[in-house]
Amino acid sequence: MDLKSGYPFWAVKNGLMYAFPQLEANLSCDVVVMGAGITGALIANDLAKHGHDVVVLDQRDVCWGSTSASTALLQYEIDTHATDLARRYNQASALLAYQSSLRAIREIEEVAHDVGDVDFATCESLYYASNRADHSRLADEFAWREQNGFPVRWLSRAALKDEYGLFAPAAILSSVAARVDPYRLASKLLQRMQQKGAHIFDRTQVTSFTATEGSVKLTTDSGMSLTAGHLVIACGYESQNWLRQRVAKNLSSYAYISDPVDPDQLRWLAGTMLWESSRPYIYMRTTGDGRLLVGGEDDDLDIPARRDRLIDRKAATLQRKVARLFPHLQAPPAFAWGGTFAETSDGLPLFGPHKEHGPRVLFALAYGGNGITYSMLGAGLLRAQIEDRPHSLTGLFAFSRLG
């Protein structure tokens, strides 16, 4: 599957950071993690840190899949409002999802600072109503979050204009959000794991696996075999290839990044990510060197050739939307790209075993707008399942909720 089109900035900026070998011998280990992007890296890192013998495999070069196209907005705010989750499930589930995601931001911060030099920074998140019809929905969402102790502030139309120069009906300002270079974070995590004795192999494709009561046996395209106690499938949007059940919908999203912008033009955008209530939504954030990263214009295309042809048009549309919001801002695209992403019907991820493969095969489907936050949660959740311990998120993020 071709997961990206155009020139994803992280790959252009960082290149191939480290060299990892292909698998050329049979191996046995505690856990095989299939997928060496940001999700696989966070999960493998957590397992290795807690004493598990881990092997990580990827059919491409490390981080060369959807991680290279991620815009890496780190938020506790889920694409599905907490009030909508509460109506769909219950108040306790909505609270658990949002509180867990809030905690995950702090956990990612700890990992990023431990690794170092990954362009991590905390910031605020400004979520504005795209139109008058969304005002009441945002007001209800704000009331729920405030009542449940989340770090939020309500901004009226007047406050938005006075403090941010934005013309919108209202907004929710959250004080907890962050940004990171996901390609750099994942690459450095995997390199550090390798230095500490973990096995990382890229350009190694798994062609089949068989799960038994006590182990999983994998076969690669070069005829090598691996035997493990558990297999974690963290292949991003390609994980669906290992399931007969369709569990999410693949879509395409688009983004561009500017050259570095004068801080006097960026103003408050330097420390605040911006997104809106319309679906699909436009969003933007900055990088450590002052570039403006803009994304959105999602569509239901999952055909790489057609997506390729749309990149320039989509980037131009995003640029026009930025110009309407910020007429003073001169930040045209320097690099533009598109990529595959997936979403579930409720905006929540899927972590754990699926009945098709049994308890030895665990999936890590961190789908949705805040996939890296979900990946951090999944690291602890899957380790608990491998260690046969209970975890508060097991039920909420399980395949069983799909019916």
Automatic annotation (TrEMBL):
Keyword Oxidoreductase applies: yes
Annotated InterPro entries: FAD-dep_OxRdtase, FAD/NAD-bd_sf
Protein name: Amino acid oxidase
SUPFAM superfamilies assigned: FAD/NAD(P)-binding domain
GO CC terms in record: cytoplasm
Stretches assigned to coiled coil: none
Positions of the FAD dependent oxidoreductase domain: 30-382
Top-rank taxon, per record: Bacteria
Signal peptide feature range: none
GO molecular function, one term: oxidoreductase activity
Sorted UniProt keywords: Oxidoreductase
Taxonomic placement: Bacteria, Pseudomonadati, Pseudomonadota, Gammaproteobacteria, Pseudomonadales
